[in-house]
UniProtKB/TrEMBL annotation:
It comes from Rozella allomycis (strain CSF55). Keywords: Hydrolase, Membrane, Metal-binding, Metalloprotease, Mitochondrion, Mitochondrion inner membrane, Protease. Its main location: mitochondrion. PANTHER family: MITOCHONDRIAL INNER MEMBRANE PROTEASE (PTHR21711), MITOCHONDRIAL INNER MEMBRANE PROTEASE ATP23 HOMOLOG (PTHR21711:SF0). It is a peripheral membrane protein. This is Mitochondrial inner membrane protease ATP23. It is found in: Mitochondrion inner membrane. It is an enzyme of class 3 (hydrolase).
Length: 220
C-alpha cells in the first residue's frame, strides 16, 4: 500500500467511524425517548422469545436498499429446533449510512414488528412471500412510517380520507420492501394485495394502530 493509499484508507475508516458513531447516538436517543420501542421488546419477550435492546446495532453491511434489517441466527442442521424461536443471537441491523437521513426510531420499530412476527409465527420462511408481505404490511402500518399522512391531511385520525391515504402509504411501502427481495420482487404487488386487508387489521401486539401502551417500568 502506497502512502497515498494508506492516507485514503485512514480517511475511509474515519468516515466509517463517524457514520457509526452518529447512528449509534441516534439509536440510543430513539431507545431513550420512544417508549414504543421498549414496549415492543417487552412484547417479544412476553411471547417467549428472548430479545434485548442491546441486539439493536449500527452497521454498514446492509447495502443501500434498506434502512434496517433483521439478521436471524438459526440453529445448526444437527441441533434440535426449539418450540419457541431462540432470538437471543439475532440482531436488528440499522444502516449507519442513513444516519441523519432516516428516523432511526421508526426503523427500529419497523424491525421490531418483524422480530415479533418471527417470534409468534415460528416458521416465517423468507421464501414465503405471502407471509413476508404480511409482516411488511404490519411493519409499515405499526412503525409510524405512514403516520405523516394524518398531519399532512389535517384530518382526524378516523376520517375516511386519512384512512385511505394511510392504507395507500402502507401498501406502497410494503411493495417497496418486497421489491428489495429477489425471491418476491417480480410479484410484489400481487403478494401485498392478497394480504393487505387482513394484515393491516392485525395490530398485535398493539391494541390498535393508534395505541402504543406504556411499557412496564420494571424491565429494561
Ligand atoms: Zn420490513
Amino acid at each position: 500500500m502506497t502512502t497515498q493509499e494508506q492516507h485514503q484508507s485512514n480517511i475511509d475508516k474515519m468516515v466509517f467511524s463517524r457514520a457509526h458513531f452518529k447512528c449509534m447516538a441516534n439509536v440510543e436517543a430513539a431507545i431513550k425517548n420512544d417508549p414504543g420501542i421498549t414496549y415492543l421488546v417487552q412484547a417479544i419477550n412476553a411471547a417467549g422469545c428472548k430479545f434485548s435492546l442491546k441486539q439493536i446495532v449500527c452497521t454498514d453491511e446492509i447495502g443501500n436498499k434498506f434502512g434496517g434489517a433483521m439478521k436471524r441466527v438459526f440453529p445448526e442442521e444437527n441441533e434440535p429446533k426449539p418450540m419457541i424461536p431462540d432470538m437471543s443471537k439475532d440482531k436488528i441491523l440499522i444502516n449507519q449510512d442513513y444516519a441523519g437521513i432516516v428516523d432511526e426510531g421508526i426503523t427500529i420499530r419497523h424491525e421490531l414488528i418483524h422480530a415479533f412476527d418471527h417470534c409468534r409465527i415460528k416458521d416465517l420462511n423468507e421464501n414465503d412471500c405471502y407471509k413476508i408481505a404480511c409482516t411488511e404490511v404490519r411493519a409499515a402500518n405499526l412503525s409510524g412510517e405512514c403516520k405523516f399522512t394524518k398531519e399532512f391531511m389535517g384530518a382526524t385520525k378516523y376520517s375516511l380520507s386519512f384512512l385511505g391515504r394511510k392504507v395507500s402509504c402502507v401498501r406502497r411501502n410494503a411493495i417497496k420492501s418486497l421489491m428489495g427481495l429477489p425471491q418476491c420482487a417480480l410479484k410484489a404487488h400481487e403478494f401485498v394485495d392478497a394480504v393487505l386487508t387482513s394484515c393491516y387489521l392485525d395490530t398485535a401486539p398493539l391494541p390498535s394502530v393508534f395505541d402504543y401502551p406504556t411499557p412496564e417500568t420494571s424491565s429494561e
